[in-house]
């Protein structure tokens, strides 16, 4: 099997109609231009939407059969998308959820009612997009990228599985992201922060303009963006497109009670009378996911719900479905708790804003405990910012690297940064699994280990944590 395939097939004899195996099918996908593995776009294959439109047209425009919620943002978009999909499923509607990247297997990106695609389904989907990609290549559209192909696979999977609703998470940016071919019922932007500056711009205003590119004329948009400069850009673009905008801290507010340890919390969703669309008040709702940032994500999901119920009279999401979904949802890799001695927390935080959100949880719930971090990140990330935040909230940092993607940051280079921001409270352990064991020992039975810095690091360690727990 290839290094990008972490699971053996569910059917060892599964083949496509033209004889391709699971491994060969994955090799085809991972052989395309892949911006998850590159730090900047290929000059010969720029990001654009014409090719994505052509690819879906060659497949019969499967998106036309779906009612879609489209969610972007710097952080929080995956969690919010998972919340909205869980609400739709709890309401009894067949719902597809497309997110990226995955933690352990590609199939995780394509979920229907919470269940990932099977490997046999994946083989069939890859065969379909491969044929469509070859068709548009002959038409002069160029080579389809990895993300274009997986996006088309997701939409086709949802059509085949009879989904009524699809929740699409933006992959990168918004304006030119290949999910931006959809005609959504509701759009949302969860947050704006500095990330992927090499592709999206160096300021929050530039990044906000790219992410606000998903706003459609006349389509309600929910914003969880709290940065004033970024929020102003989103307001301007929403006004230009005559899209009703629901803005956090203006049209709706969030309150949350403090909580200790890994217990669930409760939050209030409080609409303003001046909101441009009617919103429902919710108080003391349980929330399974940890952190004030997840309460804000839940508020975005509830505002999306209210917009959805206004637009789609035949597919309503009742209050009880919303409440139950938020009270029970778990999202792998989002401040995910693995009980034990010590407790281990796995988080995909990989930029300043997401590490700050993680640090807030550590400060609120585990301030008095011995917290040790396992940290590895990508070379295009601001490791200094993240390590500075971590150093204020943990007793020690074990620096490591992942091995499943070429973008890893050399641990010895991280050590040079840590020596400036963390004093003597760091060490280097090159192998991530060994680093986790060292951190367990340093934390002790009553302590806490937190793994963060990269999706790829979380993916590399999660399976062993699941097996152990």
Automatic annotation (TrEMBL):
<keyword id="KW-0460">Magnesium</keyword>
<dbReference type="InterPro" id="IPR004101">
    <property type="entry name" value="Mur_ligase_C"/>
</dbReference>
<keyword id="KW-0479">Metal-binding</keyword>
<dbReference type="Pfam" id="PF02875">
    <property type="entry name" value="Mur_ligase_C"/>
</dbReference>
<feature type="domain" description="Mur ligase C-terminal">
    <location>
        <begin position="333"/>
        <end position="455"/>
    </location>
</feature>
<dbReference type="Pfam" id="PF08245">
    <property type="entry name" value="Mur_ligase_M"/>
</dbReference>
<dbReference type="InterPro" id="IPR036615">
    <property type="entry name" value="Mur_ligase_C_dom_sf"/>
</dbReference>
<keyword id="KW-0547">Nucleotide-binding</keyword>
<dbReference type="GO" id="GO:0005737">
    <property type="term" value="C:cytoplasm"/>
</dbReference>
<dbReference type="GO" id="GO:0008841">
    <property type="term" value="F:dihydrofolate synthase activity"/>
</dbReference>
<dbReference type="GO" id="GO:0046872">
    <property type="term" value="F:metal ion binding"/>
</dbReference>
<dbReference type="GO" id="GO:0046656">
    <property type="term" value="P:folic acid biosynthetic process"/>
</dbReference>
<protein>
    <recommendedName>
        <fullName>Dihydrofolate synthase/folylpolyglutamate synthase</fullName>
        <ecNumber>6.3.2.12</ecNumber>
        <ecNumber>6.3.2.17</ecNumber>
    </recommendedName>
</protein>
<comment type="function">
    <text>Functions in two distinct reactions of the de novo folate biosynthetic pathway. Catalyzes the addition of a glutamate residue to dihydropteroate (7,8-dihydropteroate or H2Pte) to form dihydrofolate (7,8-dihydrofolate monoglutamate or H2Pte-Glu). Also catalyzes successive additions of L-glutamate to tetrahydrofolate or 10-formyltetrahydrofolate or 5,10-methylenetetrahydrofolate, leading to folylpolyglutamate derivatives.</text>
</comment>
<dbReference type="InterPro" id="IPR001645">
    <property type="entry name" value="Folylpolyglutamate_synth"/>
</dbReference>
<dbReference type="InterPro" id="IPR013221">
    <property type="entry name" value="Mur_ligase_cen"/>
</dbReference>
<comment type="pathway">
    <text>Cofactor biosynthesis; tetrahydrofolate biosynthesis; 7,8-dihydrofolate from 2-amino-4-hydroxy-6-hydroxymethyl-7,8-dihydropteridine diphosphate and 4-aminobenzoate: step 2/2.</text>
</comment>
<keyword id="KW-0289">Folate biosynthesis</keyword>
<comment type="pathway">
    <text>Cofactor biosynthesis; tetrahydrofolylpolyglutamate biosynthesis.</text>
</comment>
<keyword id="KW-0436">Ligase</keyword>
<keyword id="KW-0067">ATP-binding</keyword>
<dbReference type="GO" id="GO:0004326">
    <property type="term" value="F:tetrahydrofolylpolyglutamate synthase activity"/>
</dbReference>
<comment type="similarity">
    <text>Belongs to the folylpolyglutamate synthase family.</text>
</comment>
<dbReference type="InterPro" id="IPR036565">
    <property type="entry name" value="Mur-like_cat_sf"/>
</dbReference>
<feature type="domain" description="Mur ligase central">
    <location>
        <begin position="71"/>
        <end position="304"/>
    </location>
</feature>
<dbReference type="GO" id="GO:0005524">
    <property type="term" value="F:ATP binding"/>
</dbReference>
């Amino acid at each position: 099997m290839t290094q990008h395939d972490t699971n053996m097939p569910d059917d060892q004899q599964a083949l496509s109609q033209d004889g391709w195996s699971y491994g060969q099918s994955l090799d085809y996908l991972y052989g395309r231009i892949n911006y998850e593995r590159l730090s900047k776009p290929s000059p010969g294959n720029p990001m654009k939407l014409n090719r994505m439109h052509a690819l879906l047209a060659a497949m019969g425009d499967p998106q036309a059969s779906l009612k879609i919620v489209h969610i972007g943002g710097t952080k929080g978009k995956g969690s919010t998308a998972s919340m909205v999909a869980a609400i739709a499923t709890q309401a009894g509607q067949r719902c597809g959820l497309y997110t990226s990247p995955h933690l352990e297997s590609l199939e995780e990106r394509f979920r229907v009612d919470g269940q990932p695609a099977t490997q046999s389904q994946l083989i069939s989907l890859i065969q379909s997009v491969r044929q469509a990609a070859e068709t548009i290549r002959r038409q002069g559209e160029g080579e389809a990228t990895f993300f274009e192909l997986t996006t088309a696979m997701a939409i086709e999977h949802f059509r085949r599985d009879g989904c009524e609703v699809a929740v699409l998470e933006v992959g990168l940016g918004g304006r030119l992201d290949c999910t931006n071919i959809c005609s959504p019922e509701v759009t949302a932007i969860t947050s704006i922060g500095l990330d992927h500056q090499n592709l999206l711009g160096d300021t929050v205003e530039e990044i906000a303009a790219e992410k606000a590119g998903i706003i459609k004329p006349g389509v309600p948009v929910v914003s969880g963006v709290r940065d004033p400069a970024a929020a102003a850009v989103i307001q301007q673009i929403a006004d230009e497109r005559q899209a009703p905008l629901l803005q956090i801290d203006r049209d709706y507010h969030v309150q949350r009670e403090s909580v200790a340890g890994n217990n669930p919390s409760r939050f209030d969703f409080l609409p303003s009378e001046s909101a441009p669309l009617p919103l429902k008040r919710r108080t003391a709702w349980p929330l399974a996911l940890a952190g004030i940032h997840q309460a804000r994500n839940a508020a975005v999901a509830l505002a999306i719900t209210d917009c959805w119920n206004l637009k789609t009279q035949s597919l309503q999401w009742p209050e009880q479905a919303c409440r139950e979904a938020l009270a029970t949802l778990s999202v792998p890799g989002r401040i995910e708790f693995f009980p034990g001695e010590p407790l281990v927390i796995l988080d995909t935080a990989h930029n300043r804003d997401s590490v700050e959100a993680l640090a807030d949880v550590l400060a609120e719930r585990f301030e008095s405990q011995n917290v040790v971090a396992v940290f590895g990140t990508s070379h295009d990330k601001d490791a200094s910012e993240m390590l500075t935040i971590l150093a204020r909230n943990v007793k020690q940092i074990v620096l490591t690297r992942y091995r499943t993607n070429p973008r890893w940051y050399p641990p010895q280079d991280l050590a040079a940064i840590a020596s400036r921001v963390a004093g003597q409270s760091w060490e280097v352990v090159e192998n991530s699994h060994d680093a986790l064991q060292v951190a367990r020992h340093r934390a002790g039975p009553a302590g806490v280990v937190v793994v963060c810095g990269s999706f790829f690091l979380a993916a590399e360690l999660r399976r062993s944590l699941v097996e152990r727990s």
